[in-house]
Amino acid sequence: MGNVPTTVKHCLSYEQLIQDYPWLKRWLLEEKEIVPTGVKIQLIDMLSGTGLPVIEATSFVSSKWVPQMADHTDVLRGIQRAPHVRYPVLTPNMQGFQDAVAAGATEVAVFGSASETFSKKNINCSIDESMLRFKEVINTAKERQIPVRGYVSCALGCPHEGYIEPSKVSEVAKSLYELGCYEISLGDTIGVGTPGSMFKMLQSVMKEVPTNALAVHCHDTYGQALPNILTALQMGVCVVDSAVAGLGGCPYAQGSSGNVSTEDVLYMLHGMGIETGVNLAKVIEAGDFICNALHRETNSKVAKARGRTLGCVSVRENI
Amino acid sequence: PGRQCLSTSSGQALPEKVKIVEVGPRDGLQNEKTMVPTETKINLIDMLSASGLPVIEATSFVSPKWVPQMADQVEVMKGIDRKPGVSYPVLTPNLKGFQAAIKAGASEVAIFGAASELFSKKNINCSVDESLQRFDEVMKAAKEFGVPVRGYVSCVLGCPYEGKVAPEKVAHVAKRLYSMGCYEISLGDTIGVGTPGSMSKMLEAVSREVPVNALAVHCHDTYGQALANILVALQMGISVVDSSVAGLGGCPYAQGASGNVATEDVVYMLHGLGIQTGVDLSKLMDAGAFICRTLNRKTNSKVAQATCKL
């Protein structure tokens, strides 16, 4: 059960093309120390001030499984909700959903997997069984007019099964979409994907789910996240998940990186002339804050370079 | 395969094959603080030769006064096991360096120009035009000896002093080098500030002046943009990519920041795209692990980091 991703999610809103959902992922599971509630709240508040329109705040999973998220209610109640910013939370089941709503959640997310083995090892049930659980959550959410985002993990490879057929990813994405998820985020959980496999997978999924309802959630474990994101953008996907400072390692490759850094994604998008409405310098500040609080270095190359450049004109121009 | 699907905007497929120019032993080590023993350099080059890399930049015939790391240039050149079919170009900043290189057995050389005047002045104490004139004598001598010359252009996507660099300036310098007789021009994002946006604008300008099959990209990963920039270059018809095993060689302009893109990460991406490189990734990673152990430093390659910990 330990791999249920619970995240603080930062969304970049691109006026023109791209709605980017960068998220701060699993800093709870991969970061060994429990982060104080006050720090989490401060981080989210800083991110709310950067221009990001969606920030995944917490997870209503049992604190027995994810102690780092035990303060989910306090976090949701403690943050200063900025107007025009959404704060979805993870709700793996009905209990979690009810707790989330009681705590004031106005958007939720459910997680499916494209790999049977991963599903069984992660949430102790088959993909089909997980869909039944989500159906309950989604139907209840519908009644309460609460939008639900669906995630598909292992979209480009599984730590147990290895290669995952694109058709399997499409099948799960389609199920979640037909159940009522407004958007499906396709996750390269172990970061093994490349532009080649990203292309094939998206080609398959796009036959079943409208492109404008798709998002990519790339991990940078093999350094492939940015070219994979670029590929997705070129295929018309306009929602991208990422994490400030690239927080959240890969639980399957100890010490390796996991989430792609929001700063690095933003730098690329801005360089491509895509407007985001997000202030990169403020995101870097938020990244600096959380890295100091966690006593660790950022995973963002942009943040590292900016922090160490000796009078480089180009750096100032680009940030 | 993905390669055929990720076509350029004009519908052109990605290249079937990509030639990787391994710059670790020269560009990489030159920017590492630790002095590397000659034997280690030779071992590294031999391991890289065994991995299938077609081009390995072996050393630099620059004055040891300026680049002490390359002082053992002759011993390295003479000590390596030259694999048939593999090129071992060396840097030759002037005629003296060229002559020393030939004497030491070099059969391919490389010269450098900058797309930024300020960078040229601060780096080699002369204007871009003056630097190209200096290379005239190297080009003449190289022709006489039948030695191919590769040209590098630095600061193609930004300069640490000038900031933005006009694509037309890059095109101008690339064209000069090509007209002088360089068989290939490697376009270097020296400070890694480029993005797919600036990469495509620059390549558009350069490919109007130099045939695309004579172009290469040399991307730095200082801002994490290297692989995305390389992908865009491939989509625009480029089929030669420079990289450095283990991502050796930091960025001298951003202390502690990364520099060269890691060959392992490039190969991983290319193979994932169905593009042939002739490189055995696991042997390449062995070479990377070897040099990192010797330098007592962590690899900059994410593929290497991920693979040894799974």
From TrEMBL, chain A:
Protein EC: 4.1.3.4
* Gene name as annotated: hmgcll1
> Which reactions are catalysed by this chain?
(3S)-3-hydroxy-3-methylglutaryl-CoA = acetoacetate + acetyl-CoA
Q: Does the keyword S-adenosyl-L-methionine apply?
A: no
Organism of this sequence: Sander lucioperca
> Matching PROSITE patterns, A to Z?
PYR_CT (PS50991)
Kindly state which keywords UniProt assigns to this record, in alphabetical order: Lyase, Metal-binding
Task: Work out whether the entry's keyword set contains Nucleotide-binding.
Answer: no
This protein is called what? hydroxymethylglutaryl-CoA lyase
UniProtKB/TrEMBL annotation, chain B:
Family annotation (InterPro entries):
Aldolase_TIM (IPR013785), HMG_CoA_lyase_AS (IPR000138), HMGL (IPR043594), PYR_CT (IPR000891)
Matching entries from SUPFAM superfamilies are given as: Aldolase
What region holds the Pyruvate carboxyltransferase domain? Answer: 18-285
Q: Which Pfam families match?
A: HMGL-like
- Write out the GO MF terms: hydroxymethylglutaryl-CoA lyase activity; metal ion binding
Recorded catalytic activity of this chain's protein = (3S)-3-hydroxy-3-methylglutaryl-CoA = acetoacetate + acetyl-CoA
A Gene Ontology biological process noted in the UniProt record is: ketone body biosynthetic process
Supply the enzyme class, top level. lyase
So which domain of life are we looking at? Eukaryota
What is the name of the protein in this document?
hydroxymethylglutaryl-CoA lyase
